Task: inverse folding
């Protein structure tokens, strides 16, 4: 086995070159390059984490905005409904009032007309009584020759008519 | 490969060949094929990492792969140690990548180029021992630095009955001291055994095809070849598992040092 057979002649060279090569490897590559690569990996991980956090924040903000927007929408809708209801109620009240006023006017006119009518009728009635009384007095005079006073005739006609 | 007697030597792949003689304070630090493969491994890791260094916010495929590996080690450290594990990511990452790339580099079919041989750095005890000592030394230094002498309470686990106090600390101490050996030997043995097995099977295939008796080729070479495909796939799995085991155990040992059970 040359590893053991040659050990006395080669150990110094082997140890020297191993230490030299490993020293360069350790200081140049292990300490120099690896830490730079690690720093780069860490920077990337941090960037990814930051970006994710920013995205999460933006999403939360958007969610908040959507919630706020729908709130405002709901409020506006409620307000509009209230306004519409109020307007409707006002309109109904107005119409009612006008209707009542018109009713009252109509009723007043009707009452006046009825009163006129009643007056006219009573006037006409009185006229008819008078005519009937005259006619009755005339008829009585012609038939029986009795003279009937106007007042008697009127009383008699009234008694018959009513 | 071919030894002096013309036979196929499955151990030849572990041979270290000095290519350029170098000296440092009387120690022989020659540039060898092993050194070359360490540099190749380092270069491959650098290319892989550099491809993922564009550091874009939206990663491409290559960057994704690099970030996958670093993220894998990061996860392992934070799940084994906790938030403090981040400090030890460079060490465990370097260990993991070095072992993984060295294991895979040894599996590369470089042998198809005449005269070239793949060399598995991690199949050498000297190399795995250095890695294990680095891992174990980190545990010792971190433990003593953070907790001082209180670190030795590691050897008395919570809930030890008083009448076992003469035994448990010795068992714990032994299991603690054996860690660097088990780390080094596990990797060294796994890589060596796998490569020896592949070379032995390859020898069966080649010798079977070259045999003079015609029945040898279909009866020996073909089943060996089929078996070798399976063993090679298994060995690729072992390459990754050994790197993972080394990194995971190191992270668990550092956890002991940081959090004291």
Result:
């Amino acid at each position: 086995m040359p590893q053991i057979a040659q050990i006395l002649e080669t150990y110094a060279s082997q140890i020297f070159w191993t230490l030299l090569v490993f020293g360069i490897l350790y200081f140049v590559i292990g300490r120099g390059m690896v830490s730079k690569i690690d720093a780069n990996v860490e920077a990337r991980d941090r960037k990814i984490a930051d970006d994710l956090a920013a995205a999460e924040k933006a999403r939360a903000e958007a969610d908040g905005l959507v919630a706020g927007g729908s709130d405002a929408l709901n409020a506006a809708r409620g307000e509009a409904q209230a306004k519409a209801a109020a307007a409707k109620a006002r309109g109904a009240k107005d119409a009612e009032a006008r209707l009542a006023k018109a009713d009252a006017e109509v009723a007043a006119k009707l009452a006046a007309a009825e009163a006129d009518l009643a007056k006219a009728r009573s006037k006409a009635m009185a006229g008819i009584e008078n005519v009937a009384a005259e006619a009755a007095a005339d008829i009585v005079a012609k038939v029986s020759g009795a003279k009937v006073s106007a007042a008697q005739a009127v009383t008699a006609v009234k008694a018959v008519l009513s | 490969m071919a030894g002096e007697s013309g036979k196929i030597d499955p151990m030849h792949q572990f041979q270290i060949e000095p290519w350029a003689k170098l000296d440092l304070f009387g120690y022989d630090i020659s540039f060898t094929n092993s050194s070359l493969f360490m540099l190749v491994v380092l270069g491959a890791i650098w290319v892989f990492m550099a491809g993922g260094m564009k550091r874009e916010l939206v990663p491409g495929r290559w960057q994704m792969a690099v970030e996958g590996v670093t993220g894998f080690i990061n996860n392992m450290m934070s799940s084994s140690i906790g938030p403090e594990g981040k400090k030890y990511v460079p060490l465990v990452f370097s260990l993991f990548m070095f072992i993984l790339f060295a294991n895979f580099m040894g599996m590369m079919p470089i042998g198809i180029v005449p005269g070239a041989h793949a060399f598995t750095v991690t199949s050498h005890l000297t190399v795995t021992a250095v890695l294990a000592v680095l891992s174990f030394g980190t545990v010792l230094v971190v433990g003593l630095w953070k907790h001082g002498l209180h670190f030795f309470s590691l050897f008395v686990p919570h809930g030890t009955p008083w009448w076992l106090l003469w035994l448990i600390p010795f068992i714990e101490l032994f299991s603690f001291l054996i860690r660097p050996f088990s780390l080094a030997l596990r990797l060294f043995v796994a890589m060596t055994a796998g490569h020896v097995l592949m070379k032995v099977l390859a020898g069966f295939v080649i010798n079977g095809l070259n045999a003079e008796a015609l029945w040898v080729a279909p009866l020996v070479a073909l089943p060996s070849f089929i078996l070798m495909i399976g063993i090679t796939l298994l060995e690729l799995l072992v390459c990754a598992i050994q790197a993972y085991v080394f990194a995971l155990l190191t992270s668990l040992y550092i956890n002991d040092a940081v959090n004291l059970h």
In short: The longest helix of chain B spans residues 216-259. The radius of gyration of chain B is 22 Å. The helical segments of chain B are 33-51, 61-80, 89-107, 125-147, 168-177, 179-210, 216-259. Confidence is low (pLDDT under 50) at residues 1-5 of chain B.
